[in-house]
Every structure is written in C-alpha cells, then in structure tokens.
Amino acid sequence: MDSSFLNLVRGNRLSSYMGLVMEPEHGFSYAKDYTYIEIPVLGFWNQAEEKLVDKVLRNQYVRVIPACSIDCRGSYKIQVEPNPAIAEYGLAQGTYYVSPDSGKQTPGFYFHARKDLEIADLPFAVRLYMRG
User: Fold this and answer.
1) pTM for the complete prediction?
2) Which regions in the chain score pLDDT beneath 50?
3) Cα–Cα distances in angstroms (integers) from residue 103 to residues 18, 100, 106, 119, in the given order
4) Residues 5 and 35 sit within 8 Å (Cβ to Cβ)
5) CATH 3.50.30.40 describes domain 13-131
6) CA-CA to 121 of 20 to 30 Å: which in 47, 56, 83, 91?
C-alpha cells in the first residue's frame, strides 16, 4: 500500500524542500519509518508579556514555539501536527499544512492552558511530515 507521506531521509528533503533550520543546541528525532520528525519545544510565546517563557500557567493563552524554522519549497506540502500529549494540559490548535513558497516561518501552534505546563512536560512540540 502506498502512502502520501514522504520518507524524510532520502535525498535532501529536509534541507532543500522542507528548508529545516534547527536552533543551536537542539536536535530532532525521526519516526521508525522516517515519515516524520519530532521537534523539541524552544519555549512558549506569551503575548501579554511579549517574551518567550519556560512555563505556562493555568488559563494562559500562548503560542508553543518549536526549536526550528521551515521554508517549504518545491511541490510538496508540510503537515504540522502538534504533540497530542498536550491535550492533557488544555486546548491546542489542530494539525495544519504549510504550502510551498509561503516563506520562512516557525511551525508553532496556539494553546490555551487548563493546568500548568513546563517545557520538560512535553517530549516534543510538533511532528513535521512532508506530503507529495
């Protein structure tokens, strides 16, 4: 059975087509079948304080910032899936796509905390897939 998800270790898909740039001192991990990568959490953007924080308190609305940026090129799309484990702590934005030639961006997502959350509580921020 064929899949529309691309194998990310073939060729230069991460650097050329996904345009992945990791933050210094941060790495990513592959899925067993290499169809996605897991990006760690860099921090939480608190709009009220206009700064990146390491902890989210109950009832705060923040943007979860992964430790990377992407620049989707070619004819592929990037699927951004927030960590499903974050649902234990509150309400998170759903999966979305990044279209080709949409420019360099951080593939984060918005989150409304129902209980306190720290970076250490999440093994990763997002999973990134490429689709043909």
Assistant:
1) 0.94
2) 1
3) 11, 8, 10, 27
4) yes
5) no
6) 47
Is 127 strand, coil or helix? strand
Q: How far is CA 22 from CA 28, 73, 87, 93, 116, in A?
A: 8, 17, 25, 22, 27
Q: Which amino acid is at 34?
A: Y
Spatial CA neighbour of 30 closest among 105, 128, 132:
128
CA distance 79 to 94: 11
SS (H, E, C) 91-104: EECCCEEECCCCCC
How many whole angstroms separate alpha carbon 4 and alpha carbon 126?
A: 19
- What tokens appear for 73 in the block? 């090129």
pLDDT value at position 91? 97
Distance from first CA to last CA of the chain, Å, rounded?
Answer: 15
Question: CB-based burial of residue 23 (10 Å sphere; 0-12 exposed, 13-18 middle, 19+ buried)?
Answer: middle
pLDDT value, residue 2: 62
C-alpha 89/C-alpha 60 separation (Å) is 11
